[in-house]
Amino acid sequence: MTTKIIMDTDPGIDDAAALTMAINDPNIDLKLVTAVAGNVTVDKTTANALKIIHFFGKSDQIPVAAGAEQPLIKPFEDAARIHGESGMPGYDFGDDYGEPIKKTAVEALHDAIMAEDEITLVPTGSYTNIALLFSEYPEVKSHIKQIVAMGGSLSGGNMTSSAEFNVFTDPDAAKIMYNAGIPIVTVGLDITLKALLTADTIEKLGQMNEAGKMLHGLITHYNDGSNAGRPMHDVNTIFYLLHPDKIKTKEMWVDVQTDGPAIGALVGDIRGAYHDGKTNAKVCVDIDADYFNKWFLDEVSKIKM
Ligand code: BDR
Ligand code: CA
Q1: Where are the alpha helices (DSSP H) in 226-303?
Q2: 166 CB less than 6 Å from ligand 1?
Q3: N or C: where does the chain have the smaller number of CB atoms within 10 Å of the terminal CB?
Q4: For 248-298, how does the pLDDT look when each residue is reduced to its tens digit (9 = 90+)?
Q5: PANTHER family annotated for this entry (predicted)?
Q6: Is 110 a catalytic residue?
Q7: Rg (Cα) of the chain, in Å, rounded?
Q8: Of the residues 83, 110, 216, 233, which is catalytic?
Q9: Is 12 in the pocket of ligand 1 (CB under 6 A)?
């Protein structure tokens, strides 16, 4: 059975890799892509989503809508130092990659969600579009089966000592999303920094089909990670949907810090000290990193182009 999903994204190199998997895996049915400001400005993240979809020849099947230009309250700060000025350096996608649809991301999300009885939302950028959607159209909530969101960490941040980039970018939106009453799978740094793409995996991509060459180009221009390997943060969301048995999760209540020195941190109630034993999230805490590398190569090698 295929899983119907919508991706809300800020490509971004790892977002581009996540889109690649979602577009090409036959068990995923990607209905819509919405873009948000994050790694780079929203005009660039929208263009980058269009480029990936066009690259795989799916422009007539997967619409792209442009979303929020900035977070709800906090001033916008990009991550071009990690993803380059364009957000997707290292491959020439050409200039002819189509246009976003005329609807805003919020309108497009509303229409696509209401058209389904059940759909999974996969945010891989900050959650601004999702928060705006829930504020404007709360009726969508009952049509969302789950949210599988890249972001956060229970074990230290990549922006501050406790905050991860997607939550740090718009903590107020993250708070709205976590309090929406929808089951959330938290795909955070706790696993994405374990499932590093090894140098060997990256080298093999460069010797594969055009999809592998494209990803190799992007990943070799990616300023995240070290000699130990490169984190493909956002790809872990799609991996979770396809191989939940390869990821260990813990149910808990997750709160979001929206001010102070821990702004943008997720606070997981690991000991169940608050919230009367209730939980609002399944937090991913461990992953089979070897299997992730193997799967990544398999997925790309199967792409016919
Ligand atoms: C997250 O931040 C972004 O830079 C990546 O695309 C990913 O979504 C990792 O912290
Ligand atoms: Ca991202």
Answers
A1: 235-242, 289-301
A2: yes
A3: N
A4: 999 999 999 999 999 999 999 999 999 998 999 999 999 999 999 999 999
A5: INOSINE-URIDINE PREFERRING NUCLEOSIDE HYDROLASE (PTHR12304), NON-SPECIFIC RIBONUCLEOSIDE HYDROLASE RIHC (PTHR12304:SF15)
A6: no
A7: 18
A8: 233
A9: yes
